[in-house]
Design goal:
By secondary structure, the protein is an alpha/beta fold. The chain contains 19 helices and 25 strands. It folds into two domains: about 240 residues, 4-Layer Sandwich (Glutamine Phosphoribosylpyrophosphate, subunit 1, domain 1); about 325 residues, 3-Layer(aba) Sandwich (Rossmann fold), CATH 3.40.50.10490. A hairpin with a 5-residue loop joins strand 13 and strand 14. It is globular, with a radius of gyration of 25 Å. The chain binds 5-amino-5-deoxy-1-O-phosphono-D-mannitol. 5-amino-5-deoxy-1-O-phosphono-D-mannitol (M6R) binds next to helix 10 and helix 16.
């Protein structure tokens, strides 16, 4: 958040705006203002109100300032890691959302030039790089543009500088940022919720753009060639509540739609940590993938990826079963990769504590830096999905899958068990996923909404898939069941003839997941078995699969995607279906009954 006024103190405006952004992150908060040639900075770990109680933001002087509420990606939540970050001489301050991929390299360069770093964040390099460019005598804007050109990764940036205290500079790449155009003041924020009570006129910045914001004007330029961009504000007829959800009626839907962005963020892993986890996994004798709920389904998919790409056998285990089932065979040669978006699930932590006491190596994948899982893991990877407010896991599931896919690929390289061309092909397909996801959500939304209307009164659903799609079937079942309260079962389709088929009779709705992979032929057989017993067949399959379309009562067509990545794409219609079924049935999709976002009881 940033604000510049024609004389009014900004501290209170920034504080109120920051509160409205708290849903985006809440592990630490901070503010920087400029007054009479001095930069004032206050920041600390904790929620905004807690930090304010300790530091009192409101007494910060000045009519220009920036503020931030953090969701850690690099560096645990702490006072030094909180934003804003400053340069060596406290002349400028930076707030940043996103991930700077090349921060290690930039940091080394700046350390050689005697810059003093105080935090463990990627963001701090931006402050020092800007300082370095200013030292060369460049103007604030030119130094800023040259700084931005050196960054790779994602960023929404806002910067203030004592030397030119009448402007806020901003930049955008793959992270949202908007300018709020008010009377007597201008704003900048990562979403309109922050300034909607001050103004409903907003200018949305595009990737690769930088902007200069003063009390009365804004100028937008393309960073790479300095071309001026003209863009008028749009008028947002949003309430604060609507703005927080970016115009979506519920957080769950907003989070489903966010997935192309969160997948891109999850592709930005720090190489050194991927290597570290790869090393530990490769050395293990017994490797367990441990998780609960949706995260367990990500583990199920991962076991196929590890096996097919890296020829590594792993055991996906439900966390609450781990101690009873495998406890006696845990030893120093055991490696456990725990997957938990919250990093706080009691069943997971309980199993890990048991394993840790038996000298097993604990590795983690989580969305929350500073969570217990990050503290007890030898090494961990972050999902970078941002906070998920909807109780049902959506964007955190797909980000777990893409993190696991990258790990599987690195393991494949290390173990050298598959051909280079296969690895290259997988990598290419992996990087296509965020764009495929972005298109498919828009493409299937209306037809899934129709399906939800049609099936909203059903008493029961069956979900079937094979291979990788077993994980999709399980996750589809969980999403639909927890949001719509319609009882559901899911099986690997090969198992359906061993029992589940007995409940199938006329008009029972059965969902089949049938991508064009090696499982297709067998799934077609399973569909015929169910059809013969009168089931209604609803298929999620490849969009040019005419044969499948013809034997299905309802059909959702999907783009082609690498077999091992199919759950990331094929789960999307189920997330939407779960959401729309809840809406059709008059339920709150964000807060399903009896469930909590983080289950901290055994
Ligand atoms: O935070 P975690 O990933 O460890 O949470 C695990 C489960 O509690 C969670 O996935 C739960 O099943 C959700 N209701 C799924 O939407």
């Amino acid at each position: 958040m940033g604000c510049i006024t024609d004389g009014r103190a900004v501290a209170n405006i920034l504080y109120k705006s920051l509160k409205r952004l708290e849903y985006r992150g809440y592990d630490s908060a901070g503010m920087a203002t400029i007054s009479s040639g001095t930069l004032y900075v206050k920041k600390d770990q904790g929620k905004i109100d807690e930090v304010n109680e300790r530091l009192n933001f409101n007494d910060m002087p000045g009519s220009i300032g920036i503020a931030h509420t953090r969701w850690a990606t690099h560096g645990a939540p702490s006072k030094v890691n909180a934003h804003p970050h400053t340069d060596c001489n406290n002349m400028l301050a930076v707030v940043h959302n996103g991930v700077i991929e090349n921060f290690m390299e930039l940091k080394r360069e700046l350390l050689d030039l005697n810059h003093k770093f105080v935090s463990k964040t990627d963001t701090e390099v931006i402050a020092h790089l800007l300082e370095e460019n200013l030292r060369k005598g460049e103007s604030f804007f030119s130094a800023f543009v040259n700084t931005v050109k050196r960054l790779s990764g994602s960023y929404a940036l806002a910067v203030v500088y004592v030397g030119e205290p009448e402007k806020i500079l901003v930049a955008k790449q793959d992270m949202p940022i908007l300018i709020g155009v008010g009377d007597g003041g201008m704003f900048v924020a990562s979403d309109a919720a922050a300034f909607i009570e001050e103004t409903n006129k907003a200018v949305i910045l595009q990737n690769g753009e930088v902007a200069i914001i003063t009390t009365k004007s804004y100028e937008i330029y393309r960073a790479k060639d300095g071309t001026r961009v003209t863009r008028s504000p749009i008028v947002l007829n949003w309430t604060v509540d609507m703005a927080e959800k970016q115009g979506f009626p519920h957080y769950t839907l907003k989070e489903i739609f966010e997935q192309s962005i969160t997948l891109k963020s999850a592709l930005r892993l720090q190489d050194a940590y991927v290597d570290l986890l790869t090393e530990f996994l490769d050395r293990g004798e017994k490797i367990f993938l441990l998780a609960a709920g949706t995260s367990y389904h990500a583990c199920l998919a991962a076991s196929y990826m590890f096996s097919k790409l890296a020829r590594l056998t792993t055991y996906p285990v439900i966390a609450s079963e781990f101690v009873d089932n495998y406890g006696h065979s845990i030893d120093i040669n055991t490696v456990i990769l725990a997957v938990s978006q919250s990093g706080e699930t009691a069943d997971v932590l309980n199993a890990l504590e048991f394993a840790r006491l038996r000298a097993a190596t604990i590795l983690g994948i989580t969305n929350v830096v500073g969570s217990t899982l990050t503290r007890i893991s030898r090494a961990y990877l972050l999902q970078n999905a941002g906070p998920e407010i909807g109780v049902a896991a959506t964007k955190t599931f797909t980000s777990q899958l893409i993190v696991l896919a990258q790990l599987a690929l690195r393991l494949a390289k290390k173990r050298g068990k598959i051909a280079q061309f296969e690895m290259d092909e997988f990598k290419d397909r992996l990087y296509e996923v965020p764009d495929i996801v972005s298109n498919i959500i828009e493409d299937v939304r209306a037809s899934v909404q129709d399906l939800a209307k049609k099936y909203a009164k059903e008493k029961f659903f069956l979900f079937l898939g094979r291979g990788m799609s077993t994980a999709t079937a399980f996750e589809g079942r969980l999403k639909v069941m927890e949001l719509s309260y319609i009882p559901c079962i899911a099986y690997s389709a090969g198992e359906s003839k061993h029992g589940p088929i007995s409940i199938v009779e006329k008009d029972v709705p059965v969902f089949f997941i049938c991508p064009k992979d090696d499982t297709r032929k067998a799934i077609l057989g399973n569909i015929e078995e169910m059809k013969a017993r009168g089931a209604r067949i609803i298929t999620i399959g490849s969009k040019d699969d005419r044969e499948l379309m013809e034997i299905s009562d309802d059909y959702i067509g999907m783009p082609d995607v690498h077999e091992l990545l199919s759950p990331i794409v094929y789960v999307l219609p189920f997330q939407l279906l779960a959401y729309y079924l809840a809406v059709e049935r008059g339920l709150d999709p964000d807060k399903p009954r009896n469930l909590a976002k983080s289950v901290t009881v055994l």
